[in-house]
Design brief:
By secondary structure, this protein is mainly α. The protein is built from 22 helices and 7 strands. It has a 5-stranded mixed sheet. A two-stranded antiparallel sheet has the order 1-2. Helix 2 (about 55-65) runs antiparallel to helix 6 and helix 3 runs antiparallel to helix 6 (about 150-180). The longest helix has 27 residues, at about 150-180. Residues about 10-60 have low confidence and may be disordered.
Length: about 525
C-alpha cells in the first residue's frame, strides 16, 4: 500500500451538483433542518437519535444560530493557518531541510502536467511514468498555479491553502450543527491538529487534495445532503489509489442512513475503482507490470507474511497504539460517538497491516486525511450526547470543545509549528549557504543527479535524477551532499561519479562545505534509437 516516498534508507468535480443539492459549503444560506430520524441509526436507547440530538427548543435555537453563521471569521482564521503552514514549509525549504524526495517527485509530476506532457518523474528512474507508482491524476489541477509560479514553493503554498480551506469547512459545519460560538474554536483546534502539522512538515503530498474533499463529504453527510456527499466523494478515487476504499465506506454510510440505492452505487463505484486502479491501471503504467506496494503488506524484509499474519498483527506495536490513541484523544474521545468514524477504517486498515513502520505512527502525512473525519465526528458525537439520559455524558458534551482546544494547544508544544517560535528557524547557517553555492554552480537546463537536499531546488528548470538511479545516462552534473550517511566514505567525488557512470569522465567543479558539484568533461552519450 502507499508509502512515504522517502529516499531509499478550481473546485473539485461535483461542485455543480452540490449547487443543485444545496447551497455551496461556504454559502451563508440557511441550514437544513435538524437531521431526520432513521430506523437504522446505531444510537442506543438512552440517547437521542440524530433527528433529535437535543430538545426541541435547543434544536430550534441551534438552527436559528446556524442561519447567522458568518463566513468572515473563518476566512480570517484560515488565512492565519495558511500563513503558518506556508511559513513553516518555506523555512524548511530555505534551510535545505526537506525530509524526503517527495517534494521533488511531485514538482516533476506537476511540471509535466503544466507542460502538457505525460507525468514522467525521472527522480524515480529515467522516463518513469508516475501513474505506475501511485495513481494521483488529480494533482494535474495544480498545473495552472505552476504556470504562474514554477517552483516547488507553489506546491507547498497549495497544500497550505487546501488545509486551511478544510478548516473553514470543519469550523463552520460545527457551528451550524451545534450553534453557540464553538465553530471558530474548533477551527483553531483542527488547524493545529497533529495530523495536519505532521503533513506540513512532510512537505507536499497528493493527499492535500483529499483533505478538503473529505471535509465536504462529512459535512454533507451530517447535514443530510446525500447527493452532495456522494458527488464530493467521487473525485477521491483520482487523488490516491487507496481512497477508493474510503469512497466505498461513504456508500456504506449512505446505506446506513437509509439511502440504499444511492449508497449501493457509491459503494460499488468506490470498490470497483479501488480494484481497477490497483489491479489494472497502475500495473498498466508500471514498467514492472504490477502494483509495487503489495510487498508492504506481504513482505517483511526477506520474510513473506501471510494475510492472516498481517491481520493478527494489526495492533502489535506500541507505535500503532499511540497513533490510534491520539487519533481519538484529540477530540476528547467524543468522535467515537459518531458513525462517521467508519470513514477512518480503510486508511487505518492498510496502515496497520503494513510491515513498513513509516505507516504506523503519528509522523508523515498519512493521518492528515483522518483529521476532518474525527473533528466532524466529534461534532456529531456532541450533538448525539447533549440529550443523553446519562447525565455525565450530557454534561461532558458541553465541555468537549474547550477540552479539544486545550489538547490541541498542549500538543503543539511538541509538534512542528512550535519551531516558528525559534530564532534558528529563520537563520541561514553555513550549510544552507554552501548548498546555495552548489545550486549556483549548476547550469539551468542541465541534467543533474543529486540527493534529497538539493533536489526540490532543481526540479523547476533542470532534469533531475536520484543519485545512483540513472545508470547509463551520463548526466551533465552530479551534486552530492557528502554529509549524507551513504556518502560519508566518498573521498573523491569525481571518481565516485565515474564509478556510477563509466560511460563518461568527470571533474570536480565546486566543493562548498559538505556539498560537491561534479561536471562531465566528455560529450554526452548518444541515445540509441529504440529497437
Amino acid at each position: 500500500m502507499p508509502e512515504p516516498r522517502t529516499a531509499p534508507a478550481v473546485p473539485p468535480p461535483g461542485a455543480g451538483a452540490e449547487a443543485d443539492a444545496a447551497p455551496a459549503p461556504d454559502a451563508d444560506a440557511a441550514p437544513d433542518p435538524a437531521p431526520r430520524s432513521d430506523p437504522s441509526d446505531p444510537s442506543d436507547d438512552d440517547d437521542v437519535r440524530p433527528a433529535a440530538a437535543a430538545s426541541a427548543s435547543a434544536s430550534a435555537s441551534a438552527a436559528s444560530a446556524a442561519e447567522r453563521v458568518p463566513l468572515r471569521p473563518y476566512l480570517v482564521i484560515a488565512a492565519v493557518l495558511c500563513a503558518l503552514y506556508f511559513l513553516y514549509s518555506y523555512a524548511q525549504y530555505a534551510r535545505f531541510d526537506s525530509p524526503s524526495w517527495d517534494l521533488g517527485i511531485f514538482e516533476q509530476e506537476v511540471r509535466a502536467y503544466a507542460e502538457l506532457r505525460a507525468p514522467v518523474v525521472d527522480i524515480k528512474g529515467p522516463g518513469y511514468l508516475i501513474l505506475g507508482d501511485h495513481f494521483s491524476p488529480l494533482v494535474a489541477l495544480l498545473a495552472p498555479l505552476y504556470w504562474i509560479w514554477p517552483s516547488a514553493l507553489a506546491l507547498l503554498f497549495a497544500q497550505a491553502a487546501l488545509f486551511a480551506a478544510s478548516a473553514v469547512v470543519v469550523g463552520r459545519t460545527v457551528q451550524q450543527l451545534l450553534g453557540g460560538r464553538w465553530g471558530p474554536w474548533v477551527t483553531v483546534a483542527y488547524g493545529l491538529s497533529w495530523g495536519l502539522q505532521e503533513a506540513v512538515k512532510a512537505d507536499f503530498h497528493e493527499i492535500a487534495l483529499a483533505v478538503p474533499l473529505i471535509a465536504l463529504v462529512c459535512r454533507a453527510l451530517l447535514r443530510e445532503r446525500w447527493t452532495a456527499a456522494a458527488l464530493w466523494a467521487l473525485p477521491l478515487v483520482l487523488v490516491k489509489e487507496d481512497l477508493g476504499a474510503t469512497v466505498a465506506a461513504v456508500g456504506f454510510l449512505l446505506i446506513v442512513f437509509g439511502r440504499r440505492l444511492q449508497g449501493l452505487l457509491v459503494t460499488l463505484f468506490g470498490a470497483g475503482m479501488f480494484a481497477l486502479t490497483l489491479l489494472v491501471l497502475i500495473p498498466a503504467a508500471s514498467s514492472a507490470g504490477q502494483y509495487d506496494y503489495w510487498k508492504k503488506i506481504d513482505t517483511d524484509g526477506e520474510k513473506q507474511i501471510t494475510l492472516l499474519d498481517s491481520v493478527l498483527g494489526l495492533l502489535d506495536s506500541p507505535v500503532k497504539l499511540e497513533m490510534l490513541f491520539f487519533l481519538v484523544a484529540v477530540t476528547g474521545f467524543m468522535a467515537l460517538r459518531s458513525p462517521l468514524m467508519v470513514l477512518v477504517l480503510p486508511t487505518l486498515g492498510w496502515r496497520l497491516m503494513s510491515q513498513d513502520e513509516f505507516h504506523w505512527g503519528m509522523i508523515w502525512h498519512y493521518s492528515a486525511i483522518l483529521m476532518p473525519v474525527v473533528f466532524l465526528a466529534m461534532a456529531d458525537g456532541i450533538r448525539r450526547s447533549r440529550g443523553s439520559k446519562r447525565p455525565w455524558l450530557a454534561a461532558y458534551a458541553n465541555v468537549v470543545v474547550p477540552v479539544t482546544v486545550g489538547i490541541a494547544l498542549a500538543m503543539t508544544q511538541h509538534l512542528p509549528l512550535r519551531e516558528l517560535l525559534r530564532a534558528d528557524t529563520y537563520r541561514t547557517d553555513d550549510r544552507a549557504r554552501a548548498a546555495a553555492l552548489a545550486l549556483d554552480a549548476i547550469p539551468v537546463g542541465a541534467r543533474v543527479e543529486t540527493d534529497i537536499d538539493l533536489m526540490a531546488h532543481l526540479t523547476s528548470d533542470r532534469t533531475v535524477y536520484w543519485i545512483g538511479g540513472a545508470a547509463g545516462t551520463a548526466p551533465d552534473i552530479l551534486a552530492l551532499d557528502l554529509s549524507a550517511g551513504w556518502a560519508q566514505s566518498i573521498e573523491d567525488p569525481a571518481a565516485y561519479a565515474e564509478q556510477l557512470h563509466p560511460e563518461g569522465r568527470y571533474r570536480l567543479k565546486l566543493r562548498a562545505g559538505d556539498f560537491a558539484v561534479v561536471e562531465r568533461t566528455t560529450p554526452a552519450p548518444v541515445a540509441r534509437p529504440a529497437g
